[in-house]
Design goal:
alpha/beta
Length: about 220
C-alpha cells in the first residue's frame, strides 16, 4: 500500500491502515476527475462513486480538468500530473487561482522536486501510483476537509476586515456630523443608526453617504 500525502506548511506523509481517514463521505460530495488513461480514470470514478461521491465531470487532460472544475465547482478534483495539452501541476495552479475546489494529484513518482512543485501549485494532497481505494480516499477526504477549513477561515477574516472598515467609516461620519450638525457623539451615532433603519440601508452605506456629502464640502 502506498502512503497518502497531505500538504500543510511543509509536506506530511501519513500511512493509512485500518481506514481511519478512509470512511466514505457522509454526504453526497461532488468530484471531477481528469486522467488521460481511460482505465485508470474509470477506476478512480468507480472508487469515488462507491465511496458516495457524485462524479460530475470527467476529463482526459489538464485543460479539460480546469474547465470542468470552474463549471461545476466540485468538492474535490482528482487529476494526474502527467497529461497531454496541460499537465496536472499547471492545471492545479489554475484551479487554485480560481479558488473553486481542492486538488488531489496522482503521480507515478515521489520525487521531492515534483512534490514541492505540486504543493506550490496549490494542490492539497497527492497520491503515488499504483494506488488502492484505501490510498486515494483518505487523500480526497483530507483535501476536501482542509479546503473547507481554509474557506471558512478566509470568510471569517473577510468578515472581521469588513467590520473594521465599517467601524472606521462610521467613526469618520460621526465626526463630520458632530462638526457640521453640532451633535454630540451619541447623537451622531443615533442619527446614523436611525437613518439606516428608516432608509433600509446598512450603517456603512449611511456613513459612506455622509462622508461623500459632508467630506466633499471640505474640499
Amino acid at each position: 500500500m502506498c502512503p497518502v500525502h497531505q500538504y500543510s506548511k511543509g509536506v506530511t506523509e501519513t500511512n493509512d491502515t485500518a481506514g481511519s481517514a478512509a470512511a466514505p463521505a457522509t454526504s453526497k460530495r461532488r468530484a471531477v476527475v481528469a486522467e488521460d488513461e481511460a482505465l485508470i480514470r474509470m477506476d478512480i470514478v468507480e472508487t469515488l462513486t462507491e465511496a458516495g461521491y457524485d462524479v460530475v465531470g470527467e476529463g482526459a487532460n489538464g485543460e479539460e480538468g480546469v474547465a470542468l472544475a470552474i463549471e461545476h465547482k466540485p468538492d474535490v478534483v482528482v487529476m494526474d500530473i502527467k497529461m497531454p495539452v496541460m499537465d496536472g501541476i499547471t492545471a492545479a495552479e489554475k484551479i487554485a487561482a480560481e479558488r473553486v475546489a481542492p486538488v488531489v494529484l496522482l503521480t507515478a513518482f515521489s520525487q521531492t522536486e515534483l512534490v514541492e512543485r505540486a504543493r506550490d501549485a496549490g494542490a492539497m494532497a497527492y497520491v503515488v501510483k499504483p494506488f488502492t481505494p484505501a490510498d486515494l480516499l483518505p487523500a480526497v477526504e483530507i483535501a476536501a476537509s482542509r479546503f473547507s477549513e481554509i474557506r471558512a477561515l478566509e470568510s471569517e477574516i473577510a468578515d472581521i476586515t469588513e467590520r473594521m472598515e465599517t467601524r472606521k467609516k462610521v467613526e469618520r461620519a460621526k465626526g463630520l456630523l458632530m462638526e457640521n450638525m453640532r451633535l454630540n457623539e451619541p447623537e451622531a451615532f443615533r442619527w446614523i443608526q436611525k437613518t439606516s433603519m428608516d432608509r433600509r440601508l446598512t450603517m456603512r452605506e449611511v456613513a459612506e453617504a455622509v462622508i461623500d456629502q459632508m467630506g466633499s464640502d471640505k474640499k
